[in-house]
Write a structure and sequence with these properties.
8-stranded mixed β-sheet; binds zinc ion; 12 strands; about 20% helix
Length: about 220
């Protein structure tokens, strides 16, 4: 298993895929929310688990953000969609349990025989970083996958606040549409998104397809 030093994680960070309700003037009232208090304290004390081992930290705005490794998997799935389905169940399980987004870069061995992914989270409702972190023996593709929350409203944490485009006042909630790609998703390149109901893939707003209905059970298991 590959070790990731802080510096390694930082150098592999590309950007955050942020699910901002308020992005780019799109419908939806979103907004109602913010609470000041939740936090980094909570995150810090959770180090180790239940979020997973800390891979490293990196700056975002004026904050340092920790990335946690949830799990790592390598598979001989027959194609990318089949591998994404495997990952979707794992990501969904984490999000159902912890209530945060989780994500992974889809990686592949150079000979094309195996797929790999390192599942990560920052413990946010609103964002998950796009990195090039891969299991040993695999290299990153251009595609990633992330989970959406299982609720349509949440109270933003202080960590969420650094990714949301505006401040939320006390008692306001952020509204989301978990079964749709967010404007932020479309801005950050092709990828899969899993929610309670479905696994979807997008390569731009005009190119969204249903990959799998999550109630149907996995087609391929490692
Ligand atoms: Zn999203």
């Amino acid at each position: 298993m590959r070790r990731h030093e802080e510096h390694d994680t930082e150098s592999t960070l590309q950007q955050f895929r942020t699910d901002q309700a308020d992005a780019a003037g799109r419908r939806r009232p979103r907004v109602l929310g913010r609470m000041l208090a939740v936090t980094l304290l909570a995150l810090g004390s959770a180090r180790g688990d239940p979020l997973g081992a800390e891979l490293g930290t990196f700056p975002h705005g004026d904050r340092m953000v920790s990335v946690f490794r949830i799990d790592e998997t390598v598979s001989d799935a027959p194609d990318q969609d089949a591998f994404a389905i495997e990952l979707a169940y794992r990501l969904n399980a984490f999000t159902a349990r912890e209530g945060f987004e989780a994500c992974a870069r889809i990686c592949r061995s150079n000979d094309g025989a195996r797929w790999g992914a390192t599942l990560i989270t920052i413990g946010s409702h609103a964002a998950c970083p796009q990195t090039r972190i891969c299991p040993s023996g695999t290299v990153p593709t251009d595609v990633d996958i992330h989970s959406h929350l299982r609720v349509e409203r949440y109270r933003p944490s202080a960590l969420d606040g650094i990714f949301l485009v505006r401040h939320y006042s006390y008692r306001e909630l952020v509204h989301t549409d978990p079964e749709q790609f967010s404007p932020g998703d479309f801005r950050t390149g092709p990828g899969y998104m899993v929610n309670r109901q479905t696994l979807l893939f997008q390569d731009g707003e005009s190119d969204v397809r249903l990959v799998w209905r999550m109630g149907e059970g996995a087609t391929h298991r490692p």
